[in-house]
Write a structure and sequence with these properties.
The structure is a homodimer of 210-residue chains. The first copy, chain A, is mainly alpha-helical and 210 residues long. Chain A has a single domain (2-204), classed as HUPs (Rossmann fold). The first copy, chain A, is 40% helix and 8% strand. Chain A has eight helices and four strands; from the N terminus they run αβαβαβααβααα. Chain A has helices at 2-12, 30-41, 90-105, 118-121, 127-140, 157-167, 189-201, 206-209, and strands at 19-23, 47-51, 109-111, 147-149. A two-stranded parallel ribbon of chain A has the order 1-2. In chain A, helix 1 (2-12) packs across helix 6 and helix 6 crosses helix 7 (189-201). Chain A starts with a helix and ends with a helix. Chains A and B meet through strand 2, helix 3 and helix 5 of A and strand 2, helix 3 and helix 5 of B.
């Protein structure tokens, strides 16, 4: 959902983005089919999917089948601190591949959909982390390095949904659930925050209601 | 060769390192068999090989078969500037996976074999780049983040070879050539710098002479 809104925002600014997704051993690999549909709907002409296996390192409920994805009744029951769904260094790995793609393609910016609710629990979603990545990227590459853009950084889910609706994002194509079931589980953090967002905005979630 | 010396240096300091190698679409994939032999010889009990395909992004002679690996007669003919063998953001990607492995395994340090000759041509081998990566890593992870160690950073090949010999490294197990042939090509930058190093030290290269 966040990626779809960021993609639409980049296009609205006049960018012709390359979409970049990752098959990293996540149990919710269904998000990749959703990402492909979102990219096509946004008119993206190049969508790269990079594959590797973070499950070999373990340490996260998203990649280790023996660690359960935390479930709650309500969004307000989601605890503070770093959740079991944190994947060590995942955004650093994602952004590093984006940096390689930016350099080989000549892209001047990397857009990432981190948001205000992510950063409460995930260290690699904080603005100071992204700023440090940008400083490193400027020294890592042959040119000046791309600008790291996180246009949702200060936004919670409801604001992201409103922004997406303004931009014409078709949320029925998006997928948030951390589980690998055919339908969203409705109890993981991703499902609960998404549902809370749509409830706050006062519109039905088209990916659930259809 | 550099990785083998760094591994031996880390062990000499008392570390029990995890070895980490990458199958990234490099034409000289033979280096992976060499890495496995080096790790076994050093008594490493865990050697992770992460696989992904940087060839899909292109842009380097090391991953794109249509770009020739530069060849020269002598090491002093190697030009200045960024060579065709530069792989965009490669060290950033490598270090990002190392960061993930460090966090899941509890490792307090990441060792990397960049050296004084690399940094003349590769932006992601410079000390200021490594320092910026370290600052980013400290913000990226749940803990303080590992220390990035580059003990060969100020050293040219001859000094690295001397250090390796002091540490008991068996250089016959190592592989430097950028080509995929059964034997080193002897004309790529990696072969030439290696030969120059052994010539300076005044010992034969056991990987060539056997």
């Amino acid at each position: 959902m966040d990626s779809a809104v960021v993609l639409a925002a980049a296009r609205r600014e006049g960018f012709g983005p390359i979409a970049l997704s990752f098959r990293y051993g996540q149990r919710h690999e269904a998000e990749l089919a959703a990402a492909a549909a979102v990219a096509v709907a946004a008119g993206v002409t190049r969508h790269e999917v990079v594959s590797f296996d973070l499950a070999q390192f373990g340490g996260s409920a998203l990649t280790d089948p023996s660690i359960a994805v935390p479930k709650h009744e309500r969004a307000q029951d989601i605890g503070a601190g770093i959740p079991a769904t944190y994947v060590p260094a995942r955004n650093t790995i994602f952004l590093s591949f984006a940096l390689a793609l930016a350099e080989t393609s000549g892209a001047g910016a990397i857009f990432i959909g981190v948001n205000a609710q992510d950063r409460e629990g995930y260290p690699d979603c904080r603005p100071e982390y992204l700023a440090a990545f940008g400083r490193m990227a400027a020294l890592a590459t042959a040119g000046e390095g791309p600008v790291i853009r996180a246009p949702l950084s200060g936004m919670a889910k409801a604001a992201i949904i409103r922004r997406g609706l303004d931009l014409g994002v078709d949320f029925s194509l998006t997928r948030s659930c951390y589980e690998d079931g055919e339908y969203p589980c409705s109890r993981c953090d991703a499902c609960l925050l998404r549902a809370e967002g749509f409830a706050t905005v006062g519109v039905p979630d088209p990916a659930v209601s259809r």
